[in-house]
Amino acid sequence: MTVKVGDVLPNAVLTYIPYDAQNPDACGLPQQLKTHEAFKGKKVVLFAVPGAFTPTCSEEHMPGYVEKVGELKSKGADIVACVASNDQFVMHAWGNLYKVKDDILMLSDANGELGSALGLVNDGTARRMGPIRLARFAMIIDDLKVIYIGVEPAPGVTVSGASAVLAKL
Which of 4, 63, 102, 137 fits 151 for a cystine, CB–CB 3.0-4.6 Å? Predict the structure, then answer.
C-alpha cells in the first residue's frame, strides 16, 4: 500500500553522519535516526532521491533544496531532510559536496526500510542499481502525519521539487 495524505509516517530506522562544525571535512560515526522519535512534534520536509550523485538527483533535485532550504525553514519546516538508498557515508559525502552542513539532514535508507513501508520503492536491477531504490518523492510531515506527498509520475523533478513543496507549506 502506498502512503497517502492523512497517513501516519511509518516508524523506521535510518542512518546518517552528523555534521561537525568543528571538523567539517571529517567523516564521523554513523548514527541511527528513528523517524517517530526524531520527527514527533515537528514539521518535516522529506525528499527522496533514487541515488546520490546520479544525474537527475544531482543536477535537478538536490540543487533546488539547497537553494530554497532557508525559505522552507522560514515557512515552518523544522527539519529538511534528504533520503536515498545509498549508505550513510555516500549521503554524507554528497551533502559535503553541496555544503549542506546541518541545514539538510542527509539520511540513508540503504535497506529500504522506510521506502518499503511507504510503498515507494522501485526495482533498479535493470539499471544495475540494485533491487531496492527509493522512488523520487517529497512529503511534508506534521507531527508524524503526512500532509503532502508528491511522487514523480515520470523521470524528472516536478511535484517533488523544492518549489512544489514550498507552495504547499
Answer: 137
Q: Are the CB atoms for 75 and 45 separated by under 8 Å?
A: no
Separation of CA 145 from chain center: 16
pLDDT > 90 in the chain, percent: 71
d(CA 12, CA 126): 27
> Which pLDDT score is estimated for 26?
73
93 neighbors 66 (Cβ within 8 angstroms): no
Grid coordinates in use for 9? 509516517
The answer to whether the pTM exceeds 0.85 is yes
Alpha helices, DSSP H, located in the chain: 35-39, 55-56, 62-74, 88-97, 113-118, 162-168
Is residue 122 within 8 A of residue 81, CB to CB? The reply is no
Give the span between the Cα atoms of 160 and 62, in whole angstroms. Answer: 11
Q: Per the structure block, which three cell numbers stand in for 82?
A: 534528504
> In sequence order, which residues have a C-beta less than 8 Å from that of residue 44 and are 6 or more positions away?
77, 78, 79, 80, 81, 140, 141, 142
- Annotated catalytic sites, by residue? 57
Give Dmax over CA atoms of the chain in angstroms: 43
Model confidence pLDDT, tens digit, residues 26-51: 778 899 999 999 999 999 999 999 88
Distance separating alpha carbons of residues 76 and 158, to the nearest angstrom: 21
